[in-house]
Amino acid sequence: MAKAMTKSQLIEKVATKAGITKKVAGEVLEIVAEIACKEAKNSFTLPGIGKLVLVQRKARIGRNPATGETINIPAKKVVKFKVAKAAKDAILGKK
User: DSSP letters of 24-35?
Assistant: First the structure.
């Protein structure tokens, strides 16, 4: 399996593709990340890539795998990323 792209590699690719400096590309990525974190409560969409959404998980009963004892897991909010259909098709290929 190939290694994941690092932040500096991503900045370099964005700078090269857009014809801008690495510093500007880094600032743009930081701004997008900041906006995504602030707007995830209402859902944040990156067109063609996916959507960040805040989801409320219900309380449930789980099991401790070490002891087999049942435990109550409280309700909580979690952030999920839903991959866009265009991204799925590009990565996995159309069926």
Answer: HHHHHHHHHHHH
Candidates 47, 13, 52, 14; CA nearest to 33 is: 52
Beta-sheet strands, E only, within the chain: 44-46, 50-57, 60-63, 70-73, 76-83
49-89: pLDDT as tens digits = 999 999 999 999 999 999 999 999 999 999 999 999 999 99
Q: What is the pTM of this model?
A: 0.72
Q: Which domain does 7 fall in, by range?
A: 1-39
User: Are 20 and 45 within one domain?
Assistant: no
52/92 same-domain check:
yes
The predicted-structure confidence for 12-33, as pLDDT tens digits, reads as follows: 999 999 999 999 999 999 999 9
Same domain as 67, residue 28: no
